[in-house]
UniProtKB/TrEMBL annotation:
Protein name stated in the entry: Ppx/GppA phosphatase family protein
Source organism per UniProt: Aeromicrobium alkaliterrae
Matching CDD domains: ASKHA_NBD_MtPPX2-like
Domain called Ppx/GppA phosphatase N-terminal: residue spans: 25-280
InterPro entries given in the database record: ATPase_NBD, GppA/Ppx_hydrolase, Ppx_GppA_N
Lineage: Bacteria, Bacillati, Actinomycetota, Actinomycetes, Propionibacteriales
Pfam families on file: Ppx-GppA
């Protein structure tokens, strides 16, 4: 067994996984934690990480470092994605994280991010041809593959935080804002999936998809056991997406499964999912929801380094 600590630092949240990985590919998760730090706040507009956002992220990383130290971890890997990838002052962020964690963070390319998402989402599934969709705060990854092998991977600069800041100024969003965002998404997504062979398994991962799933299931609390592995009809998922887009933020905050740090940006994320389900060539009528994602992929790849 190798005890691995993986940290996924995205545009909206930072997450920690400590897991024991066996040589046969088995995994025994010991800790999963998530905090919303909004590292990417304003990056789409300024091209820089805000000092306050860096400090929020460093504070949580310091707490994660204490946990990692207490658990006798063999390998630690810290990966940052879209916000750090886009920021011209990413070196300041890397230095601050290295100082508190003792491990230099990796800033993943869009392709590496997509591959980690596919590895995490499919490691425990069968070889069926799949499309893995990871909607983050700053980017969205679309990865096709089968039997553990990636056929194609695309990373697009569309995410819940980025698009909320760019398009959805009103609360709730106006019809014009939603229409403009739909046009923007269709202009990016339709060419991205053009020419694809239809896939028989659509796997949605990460917080936007799991929150939409909780809404579709009308859960009275966030229940990982009911969400992970749920197979939801596409029409039901799209109905939940549009409901969240049109809902005022205050009403979203009152949903019993909603993380407070996601309520203001979930509408844009849900609209990404809705448009992808409209334009992607799918030979399936359902969405398979998974709580195994890039964080698990980071952990599995760390164990092989």
């Amino acid at each position: 067994m190798t005890r691995v600590a993986a940290i996924d630092c995205g545009t909206n949240s930072i997450r920690l996984l400590v897991t024991d990985l066996g040589p046969d590919g088995s995994a025994k998760d010991l800790i999963r934690e998530m905090r919303v730090v909004r590292l990417g706040e304003g990056v789409d507009r300024t091209g820089r990480l805000d000092p306050a956002a860096i400090e929020r992220t460093v504070t949580v990383t310091r707490e994660y470092a204490l946990t990692i130290g207490e658990m006798g971890v063999d390998v630690t890997r810290f990966c940052a994605t879209s916000a750090a990838r886009d920021a011209e002052n990413a070196d300041e962020f890397r230095a601050a994280i290295t100082e508190v964690l003792g491990v230099e963070p990796e800033i993943l390319t869009g392709d590496a991010e997509a591959r980690a998402s596919f590895l995490g989402a499919t490691a425990e599934l069968g070889p069926e041809p799949s499309l893995v969709v990871d909607i983050g705060g700053g980017s969205t990854e679309l990865v096709r593959g089968e039997a553990g092998q990636i056929v194609s991977a695309i990373s697009l600069d569309i995410g819940s935080v980025r698009l909320t800041e760019r398009f959805l100024a009103n609360d709730p969003p106006s019809i014009t804002e939603i229409t403009d965002l739909v046009d923007h998404l269709d202009a990016l997504l339709a060419p991205a999936v053009a020419g694809w062979e239809p896939v028989t398994r659509f796997i949605g991962v990460a917080g936007t998809v799991t929150t939409v799933a909780a809404h579709a299931l009308q859960l009275s609390t966030y229940d990982s056991e009911r969400i992970h592995g749920a197979r939801l009809p596409i029409d039901q998922v799209r109905e939940a997406c549009l409901s969240l887009v049109q809902m005022p933020v205050a009403d979203r905050r009152h949903l019993p499964f909603m993380h407070p740090g996601r309520a203001d940006v979930i509408g844009a994320g849900a609209l990404i999912l809705d448009r992808l389900l409209e334009v992607a060539p799918l030979a399936t009528g359902e969405v398979l929801v998974s709580e195994r994602d890039i964080l698990d992929g980071i952990a599995r790849s760390a164990a092989t380094v």
